[in-house]
Amino acid sequence: MLDHVLLRTFVAVIDEGGFGRAASRLNLTQSAISGHLRRLEAQLGVELMQRTTRSMTLTADGKKLLVYARAILALGRDALVEVGRHKASGRIRLGIAEDFAQSTLLNRLSSFLLLHPLLDIAVTVGIPGTLLGQLQDGALDIVLGSHCESARSGRLMWQEPLVWACGPHIQLPLTGSKAVPLAFFPEPCPYRQVALAELARVGMASKIAMVCSSFESMRCAVRSGFAIAPMTQSQMTADLVIADDALGLPPLPTVRFSLFTADSVQSPLLETLVEWISDIKPVSGSRVDADIIANEKRGC
Predict the structure, then answer these.
(1) Residue 259 and residue 274: Cα distance in Å, rounded?
(2) Over its length of 300 residues, how does the chain's per-residue pLDDT go in tens digits?
(3) Side-chain half-sphere CA neighbours of 69 within 13 A
(4) How many CB atoms lie within 10 A of CB 119?
(5) Which of 36, 146, 147, 252 is close enough to 162 for a disulfide, judged by CB 3.0 to 4.6 Å?
(6) Domain 159-255+289-297 part of CATH 3.40.190.10
């Protein structure tokens, strides 16, 4: 029979993207992590990973085992939670970026609470950088957010291009001495630093024309031509335009949407919630076009 401890280590290495981060998450040494994986490979008689000093790649057998390992561990957590459902109480503090503040996630949370009526989930919507700081300080248990780069490791849920969003009637090209007007969220906005750095790299002057408190206010700023803004492709709506090379704007990096948990938390109930919501994806901007048009008719 496969050892659940070894399977848990194997999954943690994959989710965290390396031995060091997995060791931190599981409160083990890197040598212990390596030992667990060697024992697991010995039990199975196959090589699970191809490792170099710079990379780690799952073998075909490793990919197969990962599917089974996740299922085995999930069943174990479900059994612990289900058998002790009447004891499942307490409060889980969840921080989400606005990308995730949608009915899909909230419906999933409502279903989880129906299974655990004594449990309380408190949700905070905010900027990913702020939420990760609260996670580090112990004020949150889970964070769902986007980032171009982060010192913290997290479970990758989704990744997509970051693009320059502009209005349909913006003047071409955005060159010369006039500063490019930009719209951002307040600091620590996950895209502000990278957007400003890329503009500076190609010698384009810029100014922050609007600091927005919501996606809707940012979309209004862009739609009207008052400013342009870095947005993920899924945030684009039919009335916005992705800037092409004619505008002279530099390319932007890929955005990663990740799930982060506090390193010290290893509650079976919390891990079950993580699995419950880990396949959530940001809502596509095309799905909210009707809401945008309705807002515009109200004078936005």
Answers:
(1) 8
(2) 788 888 888 988 888 778 887 887 676 788 888 899 999 999 999 999 988 777 788 999 999 999 998 888 878 766 766 665 545 567 899 999 888 888 889 998 998 888 888 889 999 999 888 999 899 888 999 999 888 876 566 778 888 899 999 998 876 555 555 788 999 998 888 899 899 999 999 888 899 999 998 888 999 999 998 999 999 988 888 889 998 766 788 999 998 888 888 765 567 778 778 878 877 776 655 444 444 334 444 444
(3) 24
(4) 17
(5) 252
(6) yes
Cis peptide before 173 (omega within 30 of 0): yes
**Coil vs helix vs strand at 5:** helix
Q: What's phi and psi for 93, nearest 5 deg?
A: -105, 115
CB 127 within 8 Å of CB 185: yes
**Which residue type is seen at 279?**
D
Range list of H helices, 84-214: 103-115, 128-136, 192-201
Residue with tokens 């906005």: 189
Where does the chain hold its CATH 1.10.10.10 domain(s)?
1-83
